[in-house]
Amino acid sequence: MKTICIISSLDTKGIETFYLRDKIRQLGKNPFILDISMRLAEGMNADISPHNVAEAGGSTFEEILTSHERAKITAIMTKGAATLALNMWKEGKLDGIIGMGGSTGSLMATDVMRALPFGVPKVMISSTAALPGMSTRYIDIGDIALIHSVIEISGLSDILKNVMDRGAYAICGMVDAPTLKTVYDIKKKHVIALTMLGPCEKCANYVRTFLEEKGYQVIGFSAAGIGDRAMEKMVEQGLFNGVIDLAPGGVIEHLVGGMRDAGPNRMEAAGKVGIPQIISTCGVNHITPSKSKYTDDHKSRRKYDLDKFRTWLRASPKELVRTAHAFAEKLNRSKGPVKVIIPLQGWSSVDSPDSPTYDPQEDKLFITELQKELKPDIELIEIEANMEESAFAQAIVNASLEMFT
Predict the structure, then answer these.
(1) Which three-class secondary structure state does DSSP give residue 127?
(2) What is the pLDDT of residues 134-146, one digit of tens each?
(3) Are 3-177 and 181-404 the same fold in CATH?
(4) Are 58 and 76 a contacting pair, CB within 8 Å?
């Protein structure tokens, strides 16, 4: 029987949580309640109590009850719940997770869900899913299905029961699907992660199509800050046997605070687990600071408007050199083989002679500095083509067949 964790706060959502538990049980699954309450829930007992959660978070429930530092105790309870949920999954005692809550409950529950690996079914019923900016915070890089309850999760009206029923059917159906390990074990040695962006889409599609015809599974990630950050986590989970990183612009964006910032650990997971990786440079010579935070320097830069919402600014020589050092530092720690392949006639479709940001001479500063800093066993290959030209895409394919076979 599949086991489903219900994460909720019994002090505020008690009868609603028990209704969801009973519905899941009626559907033939084994539900248990993980209570993240930060106040006493009189007369309501969970399978995993707030006392257990607080202890797993490195504290006590007595400290939670007496503290007035809401941010601190929220972090403790979230950490404890995530630790317990992950341990249960590792022990084979958790097949899926569903939560319910308002703002605080949704933030805490989805943080716990993201501690679980990709592929573990996750459903969040939230009354605040539609608040501006909240859904992206709840989901972030997690594979979480978000149900907007529309109404407050309070009381057991027929309308709320209908929302809960749909959530119960959703999580029960999801846990009956084949697990990700079962799916990927079949052709595990042929699963490749591929970063891509609109400005290198032609190259990415060429590479993906070619490798798929050779029997590889190629999993694409939009390298706009969220998708590539998710890729790093999935690589660490062992879901891939190689990485083709066409668009590692999240590295420079992290250094300058751009919109595509993929965090401090971007371009590190493959090296850490020791799988082969091919690195290129789409987007690395452009930055995307928020327009509301433009400095006078930003306003004076050469720019390329992708559309009415997105503008790429030319990276400065200083930023390119700094990024080359960051690339070298990350890649030099790699336990597996690495190739860096750079097109000399433009790093993306944005990078063409008719673009105001096209500057191969400044790009050369990055290449020279990177070549100087890389370990001798990391090959840097320069291709006389634009990234979107077939000659460059073929170079990526050739390297892939060499490294991933």
Answers:
(1) coil
(2) 999 999 999 999 9
(3) yes
(4) yes
Statement: 181-404 belongs to CATH 3.40.50.300: no
Q: Is the pLDDT of residue 186 over 60?
A: no
226-258: string of b/e by CB count within 10 Å (b at 16+)? bbbbbbbbbbbeebbbbbbbbbbbbbbbbbbeb
| Mean model confidence pLDDT for the chain | 95
DSSP characters over 350-366 = T-STTSTT--HHHHHHH
pLDDT at position 252, please? 98
* Selection from 275, 286, 388, 292 nearest residue 339 by Cα: 275
> What kind of fold does domain 3-177 have according to CATH?
Rossmann fold (3.40.50)
Specify the amino acid at residue 239.
Answer: L
DSSP code for 188: G
- To the question of pTM greater than 0.70 for the whole model, the response is yes
Residues in the chain: 405
Residue identified by tokens 């067949």 is 401
Burial of residue 158 (CB within 10 Å: 0-12, 13-18, 19+) is exposed
Report which of 15, 61, 71, 7 is spatially closest to residue 39, judged by C-alpha positions.
Answer: 61
**359, two tokens:** 């500057």
